[in-house]
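CORE FACILITY INTAKE
Project code: CF-77B
Contact: R.S. (postdoc)
Sample description: multi-component assembly, two entities in total
Requested service: structural model of the whole complex
Turnaround: standard
Below are the sequence entries exactly as provided by the requester. Do not edit them.
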Amino acid sequence: MSNTIIPLLLDSLASAALIFFAAVGLTLVFSVLRVLNVAHGSLYSIGGYVAASICLFIASRQLNPYLSFLALVFSALFVAAIFGPLIERGLVRWTYGKSEAVQILITFGLFLILEDLQRVIFGVQSFYEDAPMRLLGTTSIGGVVYLNYQILLIAMALLVVIGLRLLINHTRLGRLITAVVTDREMAQSIGIDTNRIFILAFSLGVFLAALGGALATPTSGIAPGLGADTMVLAFAVAAIGGLGQIEGAALASLIVGLARVLAIYLAPSLDAVAPYGAMLVVLLIRPYGLFGSVTARRI
Amino acid sequence: MPTIIAAAAVLVIALLPQVAPWLQFVLTLAIAKGFAALGVAVLLRAGLISIGHAMFFAASAYAVAFLARAGVNDLGLLLILSVLGGAFVGAVAGAFLVRYRAIFFAMLNLAVSMVFYALCAKLYGVTGGTDGLPVPVPAVFGLVLGEPAFKSVLFYLSLGLMVLVGLAVRRYLNSPLGHALSAVHTNEIRLEYLGIPVWAVLLIAYVVSAALAGLGGAIAGFAIGRVVPDFAFWTASGHLVLIAVLGGIGGVPGAFIGALFLELLHSAAVTVTDSWNLIVGMTLIIVIMFMPQGVYGLFARKEATSL
């Protein structure tokens, strides 16, 4: 039994880690900007496309294959540096303080634009470049073979949780972010440059999403439609954890990963239903998510 | 005067397929989506945004396919039963969904519709998986028609229903029950203090909107001849909200105007470019940014409640 469960578990946790990158970015952006960015999934797939393109370039020029690891992180930085400020300054900032319907629609419009742009730029064929995964090889413990790359993914997700917590609790920027999240007007009135915080927080969210996409290319490849799929999954995870909760998103991606394992083990045809089912159950019992707080309801 | 304009518009739509037969399918589909968008618009009156109404659209279309497989073979009966099916799903889902507001309402609708989508895509034995199910050509009052004739009947029936159902919905929105929706939007607590059960008001609106989406779905199923899980995908729900908001300026006719505009623009654009969504997305953003008063007071609302 452990021979089938443990690889399955690792597989699910690795994919949960990828979704976590997207979800934690979404949740971070929501907590600072109070905007639910429906186009977040597209930034994930853009990160993937850019990473795959660079990795393929490295492979075609027969450069040192270990460069592709750098390429994964670099492409996420690249996407964040370009799209973060552009989208926040150009579009999202106009929706601050507007109703959720307006925010959702504006970012849905952006989602449609970004999806088509990807189609125009990268075409409709799928991208696949697994050099980083092959380089890391496999480990065999007790006759079960593991992909080292999957272990790396899980470790990186953990690093992101710890890193974000350290950033928010122990740096000046983190304190500024906390101040803006707690009381935007008060933060502004004591002289915090909220616009700068918004740009930084949004770009950080984009970076995390793009990093998820970049790290996903070696395992699953990138194809059209990935952005839309990732969006709902990230949304489900962020909602389960409670919008705006970093640790919540981490726990929620664990839950979603485990729910998938259970589904695959008990009813294989239902594995795609599991994340949404988990989201539904959690939201019905706790609409504000596992870690969320009760403030938003109008009654 | 508005009545004359509306009548003239309906007449023009009715005559268009005589001039350009290929338009018949486009127009039928536009009316179908108009029904669903009207359903979304009803809830928007109460300030509730649902990113999950494609579920009712799809549920009803699946209901048609199931009923047809079970031997029901009459257009009228299939339409009525499938709309009732959509309304029933709406009543069950709505019973707990209307307790939530704002982003939680949007999220839960999304969650429910994605569960539905995933089930449709995965339960191969029941729903045919991603291949979907065929929707056969039914008999019309006992008459067995060929496919082209049926498609014409379907178009004119949809057009007639658009007028009748549109009038009924306008009547509903102008009734005390309909005005209560705007009141929920403005100040829910005041409504409760007046002794009006907000829950019931919203549940009725939810069932109405689900039934409207269901009617649209059934028509779309007949027009396309097949129902697939993608009917229920969240981007489809997003498009319905988009149509409802774009057309929101015009009240009840607005939903249909929005749907017609979008479908016609679509068929014009696909001959020129593949990047159809690019155009839609930009239109949406431009409309919301620069024509805020056109977008149904969504902007005005926040100023009122942020006090």
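Facility notes:
- Chain B touches chain A through 53 residues (CB under 8 Å).
- Residues 23-232 of chain B form one domain.
Invoice: internal transfer
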